[in-house]
Design goal:
By secondary structure, the chain is mostly helical. It is 72% helix and 0% strand. Helix 2 (56-95) runs antiparallel to helix 3 (107-137), helix 7 runs antiparallel to helix 8 and helix 9 runs antiparallel to helix 13 (435-469). The protein is globular. The protein starts with a helix and ends in a 17-residue tail after the last helix.
C-alpha cells in the first residue's frame, strides 16, 4: 500500500475512533443523568398510580409515561450542566494543552453535546411530553380491543391532529403576514426551519420566564435562608423568651384540659388548640436557636447572607457592564458561532478564577429561578410533594423545568454572565440579533434585581433593628380623621 493511502487510512481510522469515543462518553453521561432523574421522580411520584391492583393497563401506561418524563428531566438537567461543562472544559484545555489523559475533551465532543441537547429538547417539548399526557388520558377508540396498542393508536391520532392544527394556524398566519412563497417556506422545510423557529419561540418564552422568576427567587432565597439558619442573638434575652413561651404553652394546655373536663366553662376548644400549636411551634424554634453553637449562630447565618448579597451584587454589576458594552460594541450581542475551537483563549478576563465565578453565577441564577418559579402564585400548585405527586403534575413539572433549563444558556449569554458563545443551533434564534430586545432585557433584569435586593435588604434590616430594640411590641399610633372631633 502506498504511503498516501496509508495516511488516508490512518486518518479515517482516527476519525472513526474519535466518533466511537464521543458516542460512548455521551451515552455514559446521559445514562448517569437518567438514573439520577429516575431516583428523583421515584421520590416524588404517587405510588397508587403505578400499582397493578386495580388495572394493569393503567399501571403500564403510567410507567411508560414515567419513562418519558425521566428522559425529559434528564435532558433538562443536561441543559443546566451544558454551559458550565463547556466553560470548565475550555479552562482545562487551556491549563493542560498537551496532556494525554484529557485529549478526549475536545471541541468536537462539546459541539456534539450542544447539538444533542438541542435535538432532545425539541423532541421532548414537541413530541414526547404531549404524547405522555395524551397517552395517560387515552382509553382507545370506541369498539376497538382494549390494550396498550389501542392507547398508542389513539394518542398518535390525537397528536397528529394537534400537529396539523398548529401547522394550519401557522400557515394561515404566514399567509396573512406575507403572501409570497418565502413566508411559507418554514412549512415546507419542517426540520430545518419550522422546528428551530418553534423552539426559538419556546426559548424566548423561557428566557422571559427566567427574567420574571429570577429576581423574585433571589428575594425568596433571602427569606428561606433566614428561616433555615439560626440567626445571631442581637440585644435579646433568649432564655427569658423561652421560659415565657413554656409557661404560656403550659397555661393554654391546662385551659384545654379544663375545658374537656368541665361543662360549665364556655371555651372555644378549637381556637385554643390552634393557639397551642402556634405556641408550641414558637417554642421549638426558640429551643433550636438555644441549642445552636456559637459558631453556627454567629458565623453561619452572616456568611450565608453575605454570600447571597455578594453573588446578587456581582450579577447586577456584570449585567450593568454588559449594558454599556451593548451600547459601545456590537460584538457584545449574543450571536452563535459554528466553528468555535476550545482551548484557545479564556472567556473571562480574570482567567480561571473568572471562569469559576461564571459557573457559580450560572448555577446560582438557575437555582434562584427555580425557587422563584415555585414560589410565584401562578405556579405554586405545581410544587411536587414527596410520595404524593400525580403523574399529570410530574409531566407539568418536567415541561416547566425543561423550558427553564433549555433557556439557561441563552439567558446567561444574553445577560453577559459569560462570554462563551452559543454553539450548535442555540445561536440560530432570530430574536438574538434584535438589539432593542436584548438591551431592554438586560435593563429589565438589572432593574428588577436591584429593586428586589434593596427592598429585601432594607426591610429585613429595619425589621431586625425594630425587633432587637423591642419596638415591634409597641402599639401602632392611631390617627384621627380630619374634620371629626371626639
Amino acid at each position: 500500500m502506498a504511503p498516501p493511502e496509508q495516511d488516508a487510512l490512518a486518518v479515517r481510522q482516527q476519525l472513526f475512533h474519535d466518533r466511537v469515543r464521543e458516542c460512548i462518553i455521551c451515552a455514559l453521561l446521559f445514562a448517569s443523568l437518567y438514573i439520577l432523574c429516575h431516583f428523583v421522580i421515584t421520590h416524588f411520584k404517587k405510588h397508587t398510580d403505578f400499582t397493578a391492583v386495580h388495572d394493569d393497563e393503567d399501571a403500564a401506561a403510567n410507567r411508560i409515561a414515567l419513562g418519558l418524563c425521566t428522559f425529559t428531566l434528564a435532558v433538562a438537567l443536561g441543559a443546566v450542566l451544558l454551559l458550565p461543562f463547556s466553560i470548565i472544559s475550555n479552562e482545562v484545555l487551556l491549563s493542560f494543552p498537551h496532556n494525554y489523559y484529557i485529549q478526549w475533551l475536545n471541541g468536537s465532543l462539546v459541539h456534539g453535546l450542544w447539538n444533542l441537547i438541542f435535538l432532545f429538547s425539541n423532541l421532548s417539548l414537541v413530541f414526547l411530553m404531549p404524547f405522555a399526557y395524551f397517552f395517560t388520558e387515552s382509553e382507545g377508540f370506541a369498539g376497538s380491543k382494549k390494550g396498550i396498542m389501542a392507547r398508542v393508536y389513539e394518542t398518535s391520532v390525537v397528536l397528529l391532529l394537534l400537529t396539523l392544527l398548529v401547522l394550519g394556524m401557522v400557515w394561515v398566519g404566514s399567509a396573512i403576514v406575507g403572501s409570497d412563497a418565502a413566508s411559507r417556506q418554514p412549512l415546507y422545510d419542517l426540520w430545518e426551519c419550522y422546528l428551530p423557529y418553534l423552539y426559538s419561540c419556546i426559548s424566548l418564552c423561557g428566557v422571559l420566564l427566567l427574567l420574571l422568576c429570577t429576581p423574585f427567587g433571589l428575594s425568596t432565597m433571602f427569606t428561606v435562608t433566614g428561616k433555615l439558619l439560626v440567626k445571631p442573638r442581637l440585644l435579646e434575652d433568649l432564655d427569658e423568651q423561652l421560659s415565657c413561651t413554656r409557661l404560656e404553652e403550659a397555661a393554654v394546655s391546662r385551659r384545654i384540659c379544663s375545658g374537656k373536663a368541665s361543662c360549665w366553662l364556655n371555651l372555644n376548644v378549637e381556637l385554643l388548640r390552634e393557639q397551642f400549636l402556634a405556641i408550641r411551634s414558637k417554642r421549638r424554634k426558640l429551643e433550636l436557636r438555644h441549642r445552636a453553637s456559637p459558631w453556627q449562630r454567629n458565623l453561619g447565618y452572616p456568611l450565608a447572607m453575605l454570600g447571597l448579597l455578594a453573588l446578587t451584587g456581582i450579577s447586577i454589576l456584570i449585567v450593568s457592564f454588559h449594558v454599556l458594552e451593548l451600547l459601545l460594541d456590537d460584538a457584545a450581542m449574543p450571536r452563535g458561532i459554528q466553528d468555535a475551537s476550545l482551548g484557545q483563549v479564556s472567556f473571562s478576563i480574570l482567567g480561571s478564577f473568572g471562569a469559576a465565578l461564571q459557573v457559580v453565577l450560572i448555577f446560582y441564577l438557575m437555582l434562584s429561578s427555580v425557587v422563584g418559579f415555585y414560589s410565584s402564585p401562578l405556579f405554586t400548585r405545581l410544587l411536587p410533594a414527596r410520595r404524593d405527586t400525580p403523574l399529570t403534575k410530574i409531566i407539568g413539572n418536567c415541561v416547566s423545568l425543561l423550558v427553564l433549563s433549555s433557556a439557561l444558556p441563552v439567558f446567561s449569554r444574553t445577560l453577559g454572565i459569560t462570554r462563551f458563545d452559543l454553539l450548535g443551533d442555540f445561536g440560530r434564534f432570530d430574536w438574538l440579533g434584535n438589539f432593542y430586545l436584548v438591551f431592554l432585557y438586560n435593563m429589565g433584569f438589572a432593574g428588577l434585581t436591584t429593586l428586589c435586593l434593596v427592598k429585601r435588604v432594607s426591610w429585613g434590616a429595619q425589621a431586625e433593628l425594630l425587633r432587637a430594640c423591642g419596638l415591634h411590641k409597641l402599639p401602632l399610633p392611631v390617627t384621627r380623621p380630619l374634620g371629626k372631633s371626639c
